């Protein structure tokens, strides 16, 4: 990256960091079960809600109990269950139409990051009917309070129940981009580990590594705060303690609960301190090939940490020593390399590949353009990279 672009990026990031204490970040209020939603709805005289979910959750009957609770309390619901991984603008418009035609008054998003992203974008379109999804791309283009939004994670990874971001795919261009606005942060988060007990191993592993990516990128970036530093460390240590146990013993309540809170803490961390090029590249791959976001992050994480080199040794060594991956006597370099080796080991143990199949060489230039546009100047990464440098990273993961 040339000198003038570096100065621009770092200046932008410095302004954003200075502004953090003055921006209206908030943390959703935690609820423990679906039943906790009912008194809130009744207190606000809400009689009809819109549930955003996906067909996998419907097939596994994860919402049956909630549906019964709603019926017993005379609350009507309309469900949109067509959400796919990497939800599209078309789906946002379908869900919005359902909400408006059924005269819904609140939104309950149930699932992983995709239903939550869809619910947030839908809410933004409801309160901004004259503004297209494309025009809300980027930072602070919603600026209006959404309908009451509850987020119920069924995976321990995305942390979307805490974040101000909704990531949507333009189905025509395959461009995947974030909408970032404080109004998108859900009002309430239902953290019920029972919702994660039936997750397949592949989802447990990739969403868990997604949470790790959130925590690590927030920690090594230049915009961390004392709060996000604490949240990142807590998240990484919980993941180190619980993720592999969840993978091997999926019925373990203690480990499922630990991972759910790890994802939540990581979400709090990256909401304020942002992510980095791992996410920028993962978003471009997800948009182009519908690659699950957690899988892309898991594969990219150790490779890009290695690419950052000595610039991240100090901070990775802190994480490694706090979690017991490295010994206190280890040098920063040794501890950091142990941390990266642990990530590779976790991926291998959980059958996550080292390469991404199906990347077409002719697509790389455009994907790198998207990643460059997303990451620069917004993401306060430890090492700045331009499009040319980002292109090389696609080849590192190309099978």
Give keywords.
three-stranded mixed sheet, 15 helices, six-stranded parallel sheet, single chain, 399 residues, alpha/beta, 9 strands
Task: Give an overview of the whole structure.
It is built from 15 helices and nine strands. The protein is globular and about 60 Å long. Strand 7 and strand 8 form a beta hairpin. The strands form two sheets. It has a six-stranded parallel sheet, with helices on both faces. The chain has 399 residues and is of the alpha/beta class.
Order of helices and strands: HEHEHHEHEHEEEEEHHHHHHHHH
Low-confidence stretches: none
User: Which structural class matches the secondary elements?
Assistant: alpha/beta
What is the gyration radius calculated from CA atoms? 20 Å
Total helices: the number is 15
User: What's the rounded overall pLDDT mean?
Assistant: 96
CA-CA gap between termini? 27 Å
* β-strand number: 9
Strand order of the largest sheet: 1-9-6-4-2-3
How would the global form be characterised?
globular
Task: Tell me the fraction of residues in β-strands, as a range.
Answer: 5-15%
Explain the layout of strands and helices.
Blueprint: H1 3-19, E1 29-31, H2 37-43, E2 48-52, H3 55-59, H4 64-72, E3 76-80, H5 89-101, E4 106-111, H6 113-127, E5 138-139, E6 148-153, E7 165-170, E8 175-180, E9 188-190, H7 201-220, H8 226-248, H9 253-273, H10 277-289, H11 293-308, H12 313-322, H13 332-349, H14 361-375, H15 387-397
Parallel strand pairs: 1-9, 2-3, 2-4, 4-6, 5-8, 6-9
Antiparallel strand pairs: 7-8
Helix pairs in contact: 5-6, 7-8, 7-9, 7-11, 8-9, 10-11, 10-14, 11-13, 12-13, 14-15
């Amino acid at each position: 990256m040339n000198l003038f672009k570096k100065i621009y990026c770092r200046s932008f990031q410095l302004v954003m960091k200075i502004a953090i204490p003055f921006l209206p970040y908030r943390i959703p209020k935690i609820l423990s079960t679906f039943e906790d939603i009912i008194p809130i709805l009744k207190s606000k005289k809400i009689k009809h809600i819109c549930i955003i979910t996906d067909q996998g959750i419907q097939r596994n009957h994860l919402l049956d109990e909630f549906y019964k609770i709603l019926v017993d309390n005379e609350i009507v619901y309309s469900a949109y269950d067509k959400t796919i991984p990497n939800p599209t603008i078309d789906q946002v418009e379908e869900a919005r139409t359902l909400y408006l035609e059924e005269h819904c008054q609140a939104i309950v998003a149930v699932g992983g990051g995709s239903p939550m992203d869809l619910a947030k974008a839908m809410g933004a379109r409801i309160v901004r009917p004259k503004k297209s999804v494309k025009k809300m791309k980027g930072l602070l283009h919603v600026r209006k309070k959404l309908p009451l939004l509850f987020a119920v994670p069924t995976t321990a990874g995305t942390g979307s129940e805490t974040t101000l971001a909704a990531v949507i795919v333009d189905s025509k261009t395959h461009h995947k981009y974030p909408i970032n606005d404080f109004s998108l942060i859900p009002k309430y988060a239902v953290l019920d580990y029972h919702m994660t007990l039936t997750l397949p191993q592949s989802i447990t592993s990739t969403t868990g590594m997604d949470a790790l990516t959130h925590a690590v990128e927030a920690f090594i970036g230049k915009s961390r705060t004392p709060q996000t530093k604490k949240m990142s460390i807590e998240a990484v240590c919980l993941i180190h303690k619980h993720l592999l146990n969840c993978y091997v013993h999926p019925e373990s309540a203690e480990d499922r609960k630990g991972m759910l809170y790890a994802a939540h803490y990581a979400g709090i961390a990256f909401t304020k301190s942002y992510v980095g090029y791992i996410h920028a590249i993962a978003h471009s791959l997800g948009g182009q090939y519908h690659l699950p976001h957690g899988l892309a992050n898991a594969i990219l994480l150790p490779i890009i940490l290695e690419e950052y080199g000595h610039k991240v040794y100090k901070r990775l060594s802190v994480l490694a020593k706090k979690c017991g991956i490295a010994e206190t006597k280890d040098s920063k370099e040794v501890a950091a390399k142990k941390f990266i080796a642990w990530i590779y080991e976790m991926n291998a143990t959980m059958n996550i590949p080292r390469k991404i199949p199906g990347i077409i060489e002719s697509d790389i230039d455009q994907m790198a353009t998207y990643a460059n546009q997303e990451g620069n100047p917004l993401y306060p990464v430890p090492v700045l990279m331009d499009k040319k440098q980002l292109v090389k990273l696609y080849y590192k993961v190309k099978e």
